[in-house]
Structure formats: C-alpha cells, structure tokens
Amino acid sequence: MAAPRTIVDAEVAALAMISATLQADYAADELQWLGSPFAWIKTRPSRQVGTIGERLVAGWLAAKGFDVVRSPHSDADRLVNGHRAEVKFSTLWKSGIYKFQQLRDQNYDFAICLGVSPFDAHCWAIPKTELVGRWKRSIELGREVDGIQPQHGGADGRDTAWLTINPAAVGTWLGAFGGTLSVAARTLGRIAKR
Fold first, then answer.
1. Has residue 65 been placed in a domain?
2. pLDDT tens-place string over residues 119-140
3. Structural domain for 181, as ranges
4. What pLDDT sits at residue 96?
5. For residue 141, with 0-12 CB atoms within 10 Å meaning exposed, 13-18 middle and 19 or more buried, which class applies?
6. Which CATH number characterizes residue 56's domain?
C-alpha cells in the first residue's frame, strides 16, 4: 500500500486550507440530494445531463403509452406520436428554481421541460408558439417575460433563451401546460394527438 501523500509546498498548503473551508458551503448542496434516486445525475458532466434528460422523458412517455422515437432532424430531440418535441432538462438549483437552457426557435411543435428535485419531479409540455411569443416580447421589452429571457446579452445573443421556473410559485400561464407529471402527460395527450 502506498504511503499517504502530503502537500509540501507552503502555497499549495494554504490553498488547500481555503479549499477545506469552502467545502462546507458546497457540502450542504450535496446533502439535499442524499438518498435521492436522481442524485447520480448531479455527478455526471453537463454534456451528459441533457442526454439523460431526453432518455428520462422518452422512457416516461413510452411507459405512458406514447409513441416516442428519436427525431431524424436536429431541430427536435424526439418525435412524440409523430409531433416534433424539443426536450429540456434541469435539476433543481440551490435557489429552488429550474432553469431550462438553450431554447431556440427551431422546427419543433412543443418543448417538454422536465425538472427533477431530490424527491420530486415537475414537467411542462409547452407549445412552441407560447415560448417564442414570450421570448420575442422579452427581447422587445429588454427584460424577462413570464420567466423567459435571452440567454446571452448583446445583439448576437438573441438566438437562445432560457426559461426559469420556480416549482413552488409557477406562473399562471404555465399551469395549463403541466406542473406535475400527470398534468404534463394529459397536456401532451392533447397537443400530441395520434
């Protein structure tokens, strides 16, 4: 067995002490996910998290009887009963919100926004017209509209938006499109008729 390694450089030792004091701030974040069936997702690199979200949505919808296949076009992630769906995924942020990122004005019929908390999940199936209309209004007004705003600043930053949702205080307009998984599934049943 190898001998334990120690830090020799005084500057590195000082940095390690600062790191140890900061660790407590971040350990509290991890504790809320302790024992959660979704905790493993928080350990994955961000480039994998979106794919995990897509696969969760596809499996959940298939279990609910929807026909779900990978979209043959890059403008949508899945076809749900033949309708183009963009899937967005978020884990609950420390501030208690979900932030669905990289929304674009592409060729899809609706966005499925799935958020997971340590011991709960929320979902919204939002028609693209609803998202894009509010997004354009936020650009015109130069501020967030109904939780939607451009993701990046500047003239070139208008190609992507993000949607911020506090699951404890959902805006009225979103209520018709989900909240609980059951309501989102019913909404999808209406907007993705076979």
1. yes
2. 999 999 999 999 999 988 888 8
3. 45-191
4. 94
5. exposed
6. 3.40.1350.10
